[in-house]
Each structure stands twice: as C-alpha cells, then as structure tokens.
Design goal:
alpha/beta, 21% strand, 37% helix, two-stranded antiparallel sheet
C-alpha cells in the first residue's frame, strides 16, 4: 500500500468516529509507528508500506477510533519540549500541566545553591524530569502509590539523563507517615494530584476513563489531596519553601484558602492558556533566595 493511501484510509476512519483533527492524528500515528518524520507522509506519498505494517496501523487506528488514547498507542507524549515514554497505567501528560512546571522554574531559576524538591504523585515523571532538565542544581524526591508510575518515571529519567538527581519511593501519603521517608528539608513541594470529585467521574470522556482511576479521583470534594499534602508536608519545608499545585476547574480559590489557613503567604493563582485558573503557589514565609 502506498503511504498516501494509508494516510487517507486512517484519516477517514478517524473522521467517521468523530476524532478531532483526524488528519493530524493520522500523521501522529503513522509517524510514531513507522518511525518516520511527519513531513515524509506529505513529501513521499508514493512510498510503499509493507502489508504487515499497513495492517498493524489499520488495527491501531480502529482502536484509537474506539476511544483508546493516542499516547497509549504510540507509547509517547510530548511535554515541555521533551518526548516521554507513556503506557497504560499512568496519567497522560497534558499541556495545562506545563504551566505548573513553568511557574516552578520561574521561582527557582535565579537560585544558585543546591535545591531539593519533592513531587507527590510522579505519574509518568513529566513534571520532575522537566524540572530536572531545566534546573541543573536541583534534586528531586518523587513518590507515588503506583509501582507502574515509579517504573515509567525511572525509565523517562534514564532517557533524559537525570536519574542521578532523582530518588523514587513507593508511598501512600494518605495512609503512611511522612517521617518514614527520612526527608531532608525541602525547597518546594510540587503536585498534580487527583482532583476529580467521585460524583463527576462518570461524566468524564470515555477516553479519559482509560487512564488510572487512582490518578484522577480525589474524593467527595475534589480537594482532599491538597489538604492532605499540605498537612503532611508543611513541617518539611524550609522557611523560604513553597507548595505548587495544579488544580481542577473551579478549585483554585478553595486550594488558595487551604494554603492561607495554614499560614502561607503570597498565594498566587495562575491561568492556563485557555484562561482557566490552573496553578496555585503558596510560600511559607519569605521568597526563596532572600
């Protein structure tokens, strides 16, 4: 089969199933599975594709059309300019989380001493690895309740050559005591925790429901994890330390209040590119580096 015909067929499959941007999704799938640059698909339309590869791609496109996430099919997702290995069992990185990474980098970029951060719920490792790639004097401790998340994070840290500055622990912040980790004093805690209310889970897109429930659902209010993280880790922050959270739609003011009730100052809310309040950052006492 010629490349142009394969591209047309997959695009049509996506169109029929109401996949958004069907041509672009077809480009992504073909490029990743055949390990071809995207421009090849346009520039070399008469390139012959083996029957085996064509069949494989048709099967995968039909799976995608049924609502299976593209990142799980291609085993990859771009985040903060880096390519991350992804597979079923970890949350798929999303563009809005890049705002969280960006704001943490802004707060730390002028500090020259060694920095130590903690990420609660590492998932694929996209937050920790991106921070480590951009802040050379940083070390991070990452925790997650899921063994699969720790394995994928370690793999991504190896791929991007930052594993020497990352320590990972299987840990349940809800049911275990932080003292058991023997943590050092921390410059910051960062997290994109589960924040979907239990009652809202059934309203999610079927594609999102393919992702691990543990990484999505918080509880009845949706903000339970923020309270638990702040209560569990407030005593481990340095005087100039801060919490940095991604939050769900409509949760920013509640999370800000959680931090202010615990005495945190200069609590800031930052919007994502869609204008939604997405990131909340609260400082303990004074600005880092003062």
């Amino acid at each position: 089969m010629k490349l142009k015909d394969l591209f047309s067929k997959i695009t049509e499959i996506f169109k029929e199933s109401k996949i958004e941007n069907p041509a672009n999704e077809a480009l992504i799938l073909i490029s990743k599975i055949l390990n071809l640059p995207k421009h090849y698909i346009i520039s070399y339309p008469d390139l012959e594709i083996s029957e085996e590869d064509a069949k494989k791609l048709i099967v995968l496109s039909e799976k995608r059309a049924s609502g299976y996430p593209m990142a799980y099919l291609t085993k990859s997702k771009e985040f903060f300019g880096l390519d991350f290995y992804i597979e079923e069992g970890v949350l798929i990185p999303r563009p809005e989380t890049e705002i969280l990474v960006e704001k943490v980098i802004e707060k730390l970029q002028n500090v020259k001493r060694e920095l130590i951060g903690l990420e609660v719920g590492v998932g694929s490792g996209c937050i920790s690895v991106s921070l480590l790639k951009n802040i050379k004097n940083l070390k991070i401790i990452g925790i997650d309740i899921l063994e699969k998340a720790l394995e994928i994070t370690e793999k991504n840290a190896k791929i991007h050559k930052v594993l020497d500055r990352l320590k990972l622990f299987k840990f349940d912040i809800v049911n275990e005591k932080m003292n058991s980790l023997n943590l050092p004093k921390l410059d910051f805690v960062v997290s994109n925790p589960p924040y979907i209310k239990e009652e809202d889970y059934q309203k999610l897109q079927e594609e999102v429901k393919k992702e691990p429930k543990e990484a999505l659902i918080s509880g009845k209010e949706g903000t339970e994890f923020y309270e638990k993280i702040v209560n569990s880790l407030k005593d481990f922050l340095k005087e100039d330390g801060f919490f940095a959270f991604e939050v769900g739609i409509g949760q920013a003011e509640k999370v800000k209040q959680i931090l202010e009730d615990k005495g945190y100052k200069n609590v800031e809310i930052h919007k994502d590119l869609a204008g939604i309040d997405r990131v909340v950052i609260g400082e303990r006492f004074k600005k880092i580096g003062d």
